[in-house]
């Protein structure tokens, strides 16, 4: 189903399968990464498709441009489930939306802030089984996170066509989410009981769809070199370290890119933008730096640590803006901080346009994550002229270097409020030195790779897996 028809047999045909795609249906970095990679891969001349669930909001975002092109059926234990396949081309990428209203016409992609949808095993198993039926002609099927994981054993175990099976690449974006379900979910998967082993999809007595994607893929990637190393450690492998160690020769970390605009801004322009943003959000413009957090609001992201340090920062003259949705305990605490401080704004929503205005107006973008495979807000912020304040983990460690070491940000180690507060303190004192601050801003801008850079690494990997002459590495 890759389209349009390849001009020559040498045109690389890649089909991504994922739960999100930026600007169409997404909740954050995952959707941005898939869209950034797919669009940049298409720019290399490859034929690129993306298969995502046909969420109601995806159709709304695409404004009626999608065309129904067929139907695929998945046999569920209680009867057949029909997905209508819709197609549209955007930015050189063919987007396939797999529509099944009962599962995907919902207000959220995965569930609301308090809980995932109780039928997510059915929703994403059915989606993956439908997706596995529309990868005809692909050279490479590239799967992302647990939602797409089932495609790997479906292709690896049941391929029966005369042409060679596509190479399978699985990327782990967020290892904390496994898609683990009771073994009774086997009936949803379209697989036989032979996969119910530790060499198959079984993990600690449950069916694990992330493991399915990793175990049956030809190659594994994650989204930064440091995170690829972390995945092999007990502390960083989220219970799958053994698998990553076992497959370490088939594992690479490729840093995500960003296509955010890179604009040189003068200190005067930033001062004006800071004031305008504070006015827009109805908070006092700080005399000190404006700190910001644009993130899913979870303990993974270290939001609890940040909540502890905000009052102290505000007392020292700083301002604070938080944008995002997340765990009720954290959002409640943020609401209460914002209520009591005239220099703290909490915007409880997903709003990419406001996120960009924040990157362009804030002085410091915080990423105090406990773990972070890549992270996207620090990349966007650095392009826009804010300095990152980050914990040294995963992709943050690969993209943020401390100003003390000639870098462009503020880095801390232990995931503790004290260490975070020290890093904030250093930001407060550097803020007093206009020249040093501006020099760091100028260094930061060139650091994040573009998606073209990341896509070139993926294309080299695909070509190598296909054994094509001229492939690098
Ligand atoms: C996940 C990770 C994040 C990464 C994103 C895109 O959301 O948590 O670190 O940037 O995927 O790869």
General description of the model:
The protein is of the alpha/beta class and 473 residues long. It folds into 2 domains: 13-257 and 452-466, Glycogen Phosphorylase B (Rossmann fold); 267-448, 3-Layer(aba) Sandwich (Rossmann fold). 38% of the residues lie in helices and 19% in strands. The chain has helices spanning 29-43, 56-61, 101-104, 120-131, 145-149, 151-158, 186-189, 209-215, 225-230, 241-246, 267-281, 303-315, 328-340, 352-361, 377-384, 394-399, 417-431, 434-445, 451-465, and strands spanning 13-17, 47-53, 67-76, 79-90, 93-99, 140-144, 167-172, 180-181, 202-203, 206-208, 219-222, 251-253, 290-294, 319-323, 344-347, 364-367, 387-391, 410-412. A hairpin with a 2-residue loop joins strand 9 and strand 10 (206-208). Helix 12 runs parallel beside helix 13 (328-340). It is globular, with a radius of gyration of 23 Å. The relative contact order is 0.11. The model has no long low-confidence stretch (mean pLDDT 96). Bound molecules: alpha-D-glucopyranose (GLC). Alpha-D-glucopyranose binds next to helix 1.
